[in-house]
Specification:
globular, Rossmann fold, Dihydrodipicolinate Reductase, domain 2, 2 domains, alpha/beta
Length: 335
């Protein structure tokens, strides 16, 4: 582990800037460094960094304590590989990479360099998510029969001060599209219910947004223990939606991720609110993620999302694309 008093963020977009701000809170003793993902010149005040570098090689030469890769997903392999080779602990923003092939290469490089790597699926730190997982683990829903997940928001409303077609989410070359951009849902479904056994999916570009990536996806998954899940993802819904309904033998759980609340519907129409915090500061998820990452490289705790889990999410995405192209269900064992 390096002993320098600086932390590095690779990237200068919205998520990179969030990490730059949060690092000051989590590691106040460290100097905050930044390098553009594309190599374009940066000003320190543009990214609120103490030091900006002209290249990743120059940034690595400053011997950072840790690094966060917050560049577009297709560039993660190159950036993470350089950092791992230098012995720098790395938090890679979701998705880990854009393809399964790149995920395999990252895993190979991580093993080669005995690297410390974590993947940034921050929804696992949402308090209502932890409530849902605890209830499932404790058997509070009994046998689970089916799951229904819906996530979407009108893409032009995400960052209204910018042209949405210029954002990473809208560009295929930068790893855009709902499958990668909204892969949080795929991560937490596997986190809650285990590996996907099979998938049947329709991936569409409706043409409504005039972008070159998919803007609407509908899928049917099967998991072990005869659990069936449906998933809808889009860039089209005018009212932001992020919900998960889990139907079990002992009750039906309704989880609203945007409102950060969890309701359990039981016999006779009884409804019990298991968790509620509508005033929750969602930046706290990212802060908790960074605190965990620090514990990973300083104290050897397990990664929040390991390379195997992140690769599995990409395998599911690949199976979803394959199923849509074939018009047939895909067995995950064959992907």
């Amino acid at each position: 582990m390096n002993a320098s008093g600086c932390c590095l963020v690779v990237g200068s977009g919205s998520i990179a800037k969030r990490h730059l701000r949060n690092l000051r809170q989590v590691l106040p003793e460290c100097s905050i460094h930044c390098v553009s993902a594309s190599g374009r010149p940066l000003r320190p005040d543009e990214v609120t960094a103490d030091v900006v570098h002209s290249s990743l090689d120059e940034a690595i030469a400053s011997n950072p304590l840790c690094a966060i890769v917050a560049s577009p997903a297709p560039w993660h392999l190159s950036h993470a590989t350089q950092l791992m080779a230098a012995g720098i602990p790395v938090l890679i923003e979701k998705p880990m990479v854009a393809t399964v092939q790149d995920a395999i290469k990252i895993a190979e490089q991580a093993e080669r360099h005995n690297a410390c790597v974590d993947i940034g699926y921050n929804l696992r730190f949402l308090p209502s998510a932890c409530c849902v997982r605890d209830l499932i683990r404790q058997g509070g829903l009994g046998r689970i029969h089916s799951v229904h997940t819906d996530v979407g928001q009108y893409l032009p409303d995400w960052r209204p001060m910018t042209n949405f077609r210029h954002n990473v989410s809208a560009q295929k070359s930068l790893g855009g599209g709902v499958l990668l951009e909204l892969s949080h849902e795929l991560d937490y479904l596997c986190w809650l219910f285990g590996p996907v056994d099979s998938v049947y999916c329709k991936v569409r570009n409706t043409g409504e947004l005039e972008i070159d990536v998919e803007d609407c996806v509908d899928a049917l998954f099967t998991f072990s223990a005869d659990i069936v899940a449906t998933l809808h993802m889009d860039f089209l819904q005018r009212a932001p939606m992020r919900t998960c309904k889990i139907i079990g033998a002992k009750g039906t759980l309704v989880w609203d991720l945007n409102r950060n609340d969890v309701d359990l519907h039981g016999p006779g129409g009884a409804v019990q609110r298991l968790y509620e915090d509508c005033d929750y500061d969602r930046n706290e998820m990212y802060v908790a993620e960074l605190r965990h990452f620090v514990n990973v490289f300083k104290h050897g705790v397990a990664a929040n999302v390991n390379l195997q889990e992140a690769t599995q999410t990409l395998r599911v995405i690949e199976a979803m694309r394959q199923s849509s192209a074939l018009g047939l269900p895909v067995n995950m064992k064959k992907v």
